Amino acid sequence: MSYEDAHKLLRRNRELSILNAIAEALNRSVDLPQALEGVLRLVAELLSLRTGWIWLLEEDTGEPYLAASQFLPPALANEPERMTGSCYCLDTFEQGDLTGAANVNVVTCSRLKALIDGTDGLRYHASIPIYSHTDKLGVLNVASADWRELDADDLRLLYTIGYQLGVAIERARLYARSAQLAKIEERNRLAREIHDTLAQGLAAISLQLESADALIDASPTRAKDNLRKALDLARLNLEEARRSVLDLRAAPLLERSLPDALRALAETLAREDGVSIDVQVQGAVEELPGRIEAGVYRIAQEALNNAARHSGAERLVVSLSRSDDRLRLTVEDDGQGFEPGAATTGFGLIGMRERARLLGGTLEVDSLPNRGTRILLDIPV
Fold first, then answer.
1. How far apart are CA 202 and CA 222, in angstroms?
2. Which of 107, 210, 278, 356 could pair with 363 in a Cys bridge, judged by C-beta atoms 3.0 to 4.6 Å apart?
3. Is the pTM of this model over 0.90?
4. CATH architecture of 251-381
């Protein structure tokens, strides 16, 4: 192998190592600001650059904003207003000017051009456009004091980094939309559940009270029976209302992973109801779509509430596992059990089965009197 070939091979291996490190940083998190900051640190370190920053365009308005920055020179870091508004590279990027920032290029930074002090010798930066297919997403700017031009290898490497960023940004935005849709779907489901449970319950209470009113003179004893039934229904509906209100509070998954949220739920129920709850986790269940996390958590919450408060159980086991493209949740208890066929109209089971159906999965109930209960959720991921 000639010296030239060996040099090319070494450079190519280095480029692949850089791209692999950046890919790992982008795949580590779906939090966009965190991912972008990590990429900037890597790019500056691996390419021996002085500084860098990333502009993104707002999805709704197309207005540029500073999404991340790394080691800005004092003239920019100490005067944040200089890093607002448009500039030469953003203007040429949005106009599609291939001699400007719409293509990988080294340009004179218009934010530093008129400054004398606090620039750390920086005058030029490389502008790397960030696209998703043909959609303009933003610009990555990286700078070195001695840059004037880029060779073909530099251009290719920076172009690929820009492509990686575009894929990661689009993925993060899709994840955020998915989480928002999951919240809307959850609230719509709760609205349907409130209508199907509380509205029907109030109708039943009204019927019992009307019967009591009609019988109060002719048959006081029968009227009292109707009043007792109305009181029992009112208590049941009050419990349903409280449960629905708890469901509508801030989601417990906002700052927790699904396993952590399940452990916190188990600790709360164990403390309040005096039962032993063991949570077991297997497989890669830390990173799941928001709608799946919310649905699985609510099913587990319903199953645990029912078991802890109504089954007479002393011990419960929650198992969450992921294998290939399937996610499984199992909730088992050693309580009194029941005949599943005789409990198909229970509000809890109806809600759990509906959630499972919305997730594209199935919910199985295995129970017998005095033999405990096992609930199995199986959904595709």
1. 20
2. 356
3. no
4. 2-Layer Sandwich (3.30)
